[in-house]
């Protein structure tokens, strides 16, 4: 990734130098200024640059690469967004609603004074936003909206670099890069004739991202692309179905926390690497949203939970327990690629993998090499590895999921439930209900439920009360974005 960015800068220098030499008397930046003027003019000129506010209401389909129900493809999920930018006061509100076969969320990230908070309408509470500054909190919305890219470009001409010309979709385009705070440089593909932005590209740790805009129109004198598609690498991630823009209609009352919405209970502190003893010989190690259960099997250790950073968690486990036993087995929970980020570590540590059959392809990719046959145990129903029992179950999250159980009553799961709070019961989604049904069907005596995504060891009675409080209504707030008409 670093290499690619260096190459991009180098190309920028090569391409801009001849342009300067060929244009007699040209000032540095003249080409950039011309492209910026073309873009601003296309998007409405003063109607854009003097707009006090812009509101985008968007209906899309959203997919999550590597997160399908099967390992073969990913499903598309409905996504609705109501994005309101108060440009005059550098504040915004981004409401999003989605509901599908295994999750539903309804959130609003909103500027409140100098802060940014995240409202959760499914639970009726709010918390400080993970990203408290304007450009980090609302950068994803700015980058997904060509009108806002044009607006930001007009505000930051000094960061612009003309990168040359390229044919894109059969038409000549000017390439220009510019910067907004807290983001890698953004490269715009500007239609050389019309000035519309056809595409924005940027390179991130997640891979090459591309944002495509088409079917441009005007509303209130301001231009916008009515079609939007977002790709992560080669995978389609968001495809818009309908998009509208209204100009200067955002109201002051938007920038308040909704009546009846309370601050959420205190979350379990996950800021530092911790190693908790759950029962004799069973530990949970991790930090942030990545945890692994390590089980001492006598001569060796069994790991369950495979997020990136597995080697660091194993080192922390050894330091905390004084163990020098090898990681002999690593249990792969399911085929989702985020849960395979630590598998190259496990391969390096010498582990044999215990995995659902449908995760083998993704496992090989994540490990960076085909796992040798003598280090691969493909689950067929159930297996016993030392003191750990592994059950291949089907839930609404994954068609094939390896549930790990250690006597006298500890189960480890990923993605179905996260305890979240110190002293309160965290809300359950449909996946928690599905998991509980699967565990009930196994007739296991689970007393404690561990999670790949959180530190809290949840008692079975707490899990049961979360599941019994589950609300299947995908729109409990009744807000217009999701209310059934
Ligand atoms: Zn998953």
Automatic annotation (TrEMBL):
> What SUPFAM superfamilies would the database entry show?
Metallo-hydrolase/oxidoreductase
The cofactor named in the record is:
Zn(2+)
Instruction: State the InterPro entries in the record.
Output: Beta-lactamase_class-B_CS (IPR001018), RibonucZ/Hydroxyglut_hydro (IPR036866)
Organism this protein belongs to: Hyphococcus aureus
What is the protein's name according to its record?
A: Metallo-beta-lactamase domain-containing protein
Q: Which UniProt keywords apply?
A: Hydrolase, Metal-binding, Signal, Zinc
**Secretion signal: which residues?**
1-28
